[in-house]
Amino acid sequence: MLPRKIVIDCDPGIDDALAIVLAHGSPDLEILGITTVGGNVDLAGTTDNALRLREFLGFADVPIAAGSAGALLRPRVNAAEVHGASGLGGALLPPATLPVTGGHAVDFIIETLRADPGEVTLVAIGPLTNVALAVLKEPRIVDWARGLTILGGSYTRGNFSPAAEFNIAADPEAAAIVFGAGWTVTMIGLDVSRSAVTTEAVADRMRAMGRLGADLLIPCVEFYGVITADGGPAIHDACAVAYLIDPSLITVEPAVVDVETAGRFTSGMTVTDFRLGGRTPNALVGTSLDTGRFWDLLLATYAQVARTIEDQSPDLARLPSPSS
Ligand code: RIB
Ligand code: CA
To answer: Residue 43: pLDDT above 80?
Structure first.
């Protein structure tokens, strides 16, 4: 099977970073490009993080285009308290030496989908501003895209507010445009991703992954939350990528999803109706995660990426650790 072609729209972001490692390491995916949006930290930060990740992981040939700094209508928000001022927690990757690709993320998304109709899946793991602007600028992308899979929303509890998940709440008008555009959105929400917790056993496996573990995975997850024997920070964004690698990991059900944009307490809520009532579903909504196989996939893929990094920088790998 040829790898699935994807464009990742993201706001790195700790879990964005771990999703990008997964996508890069998977033989089942081919990253055609990464586009950035303001979200967890500002656009300059999310873009710098994407550039640093690209060189640290070794996919310098993949274009990175910067997009929207903020939402269509709402004041900017961020999640620096969760992801750290840099956006990558305690990770300090080497500064990027290669620049962003010229052009705006919205145009990159449109032109990449136009060039390969039916073949490219858009994976949006940040606020949906870039995706909404792409739909408004070129509505035909809903036909050109092989699909749109997002990490976002929730049909139960929110994390930005009692009712809303961060990516949707950051730009509810954009999300409403995206869910109303005519394609079927695969919505991997908190209902699924809350289960993707980084336990002590998972972290121990990451600790044995050389520079990938020491310089990225561990400084990220240890910042992201408290790691215990049976709990820890949830790697939300990786769930959206994992679904594209192995759809059997996540159960999805058709639903009609409306995005609340006017509610005083519910702005950004993804109002999810599984009843349909004769209406055409505009979404496939994730309802459960096979957590064991999810982590089997991530850790096996991460281990392969780790080996590649060690092979590419053998001298660094043999350097004594600072404490020794
Ligand atoms: O609610 C989780 C989502 O918000 C993730 O994409 C995380 O990176 C933040 O953007
Ligand atoms: Ca994100």
So the answer is: yes
Between CA 262 and CA 260 the distance in angstroms is 6
What is the sign, positive or negative, of the torsion defined by CA atoms of 30, 191, 128, 270?
positive
Amino acid identity, position 61: D
Conformational region of residue 268, where left means phi above 0, alpha means psi within -120 to 50, and beta covers everything else: left
How far is ligand 1, taken at its centre, from the CA of residue 133, in Å? 20
Q: How buried is residue 251: exposed, middle or buried, by Cβ count under 10 Å (0-12/13-18/19+)?
A: middle
**CB of 125 closer than 6 angstroms to any ligand 1 atom:** yes
| pLDDT tens sequence across 137-180 | 999 999 999 999 999 999 999 999 999 999 999 999 999 999 99
Catalytic site includes residue 236: yes
What pLDDT does residue 315 have?
A: 61
Distance 285 CA to ligand 2 centre (A): 18
- Cα atoms in the Cβ-side hemisphere of radius 13 Å centred on 70: 6
Closest CA to 14 of 203, 291, 194, 221: 221
Task: Establish whether residue 191 lines the binding site of ligand 1, counting it when its CB lies within 6 angstroms of any ligand atom.
Answer: no
CA 211 to centroid of ligand 2, rounded, Å: 23
DSSP state of 321: P
Asked whether residue 323 is assigned to any structural domain, the reply reads no
**Is residue 175, in this structure, part of any structural domain at all?**
yes
Is residue 109, in this structure, part of any structural domain at all? yes
Q: Is residue 79 part of a domain?
A: no
Counted domains in the chain: 1
Q: How confident is the model at residue 319 (pLDDT cuts 50, 70, 90)?
A: very low
Tell me the percentage of the chain whose pLDDT exceeds 70.
97
Q: Is residue 280 classed exposed, middle or buried when 0-12, 13-18 and 19+ CB atoms within 10 A define those classes?
A: exposed
